[in-house]
Design a protein that fits this description.
There is one protein chain. By secondary structure, the protein is mainly alpha-helical. It has one domain: Four Helix Bundle (Hemerythrin (Met), subunit A) (Up-down Bundle), CATH 1.20.120.520. The longest helix is centred in the middle third of the chain and has 37 residues. The C terminus is likely disordered. The structure holds fe (ii) ion (FE2) (2 copies). The site of one fe (ii) ion (FE2) has 5 residues, from helix 1 and helix 2. The site of one fe (ii) ion (FE2) has 5 residues, from helix 3 and helix 4.
């Protein structure tokens, strides 16, 4: 995949309401897919001298995965998954097995992101990379895309619909409040007001994100057969 790095604008992105925290987490997945697309675009030209366009795409994607994406992981691992585990529901047992593998994916993805951060920062600093680092960057993004594709599909099509059914309104409100707190927003009610100003998703923790170069959209992830509830 070689050629000009494309960064089209995301059109028509619509955020879920705060009464639907798993919907918000799915919104974050769309954001993750976009920034993975940006990193794939960078990987296709990373054997060439750095251009301003590539710099902008790489800086915004690295920043997203360094600062905002970990909050998404915490939303799931600290707020959502523990509440699901507390429910005495037979379907949860099967989902919990999936959750354990998802938490392993989070660790694996974190180490691949750390590798890409190091290589990407060097590329930004020096303006070029030696071939061994080019190969490492490309391998890391291929692995990340593969991990996220499967991971996001399980969460969007199995875990989140189940959570939506199982969790009480109080659970959902508590999750939304914890998500707000991670972004240093005072409360759900205040966050609801602030949301008017945030065009994308709450896993972006600054209000200027819409000004960043928007990488190309990836193809939507195909749903898992039989898992939609
Ligand atoms: Fe996850
Ligand atoms: Fe997720």
């Amino acid at each position: 995949m070689r050629g000009v790095l494309k960064m089209p604008v995301q059109i028509g992105a619509k955020a879920h309401p705060f009464s639907d925290p798993t919907g918000l987490l799915s919104d974050c997945h769309r954001r993750i897919e976009m920034f993975l697309g940006a990193l794939e675009g960078v990987a296709s030209v990373i054997d060439r001298p750095l251009t301003e366009e590539t710099r902008a795409a790489l800086e915004s994607a690295l920043r997203y995965f360094r600062e905002a994406a970990p909050k998404h992981t915490a939303d799931e691992e600290e707020s959502l998954f523990p509440r699901m585990r507390q429910k005495r529901d037979p379907n949860v047992e099967a989902a919990i097995k999936r959750l354990e593998s998802l938490e392993h994916d989070h660790l694996l993805a974190a180490s691949l992101h750390a590798e890409m951060e190091e290589l990407g920062q060097r590329y930004l600093e020096v303006g070029s990379l030696e071939s061994i680092s080019v190969d490492a960057f490309r391998k890391a993004i291929v692995s990340l895309v593969s991990i996220y594709k499967q991971h996001i599909r399980i969460e969007d099509d199995l875990v989140f619909p189940l959570a939506k059914q199982l969790l009480s309104a109080a659970d959902k409100a508590a999750i939304a409040d914890e998500m707000a707190a991670r972004r240093k927003l005072a409360s759900l009610s205040l966050w609801t007001v602030i949301r008017q100003k945030v065009s994308a998703c709450p896993c972006s923790d600054d209000l200027q994100d819409s000004r960043l170069p928007t990488p190309r959209l990836r193809e939507p992830v195909a749903p898992v057969q039989g898992h939609r509830s």
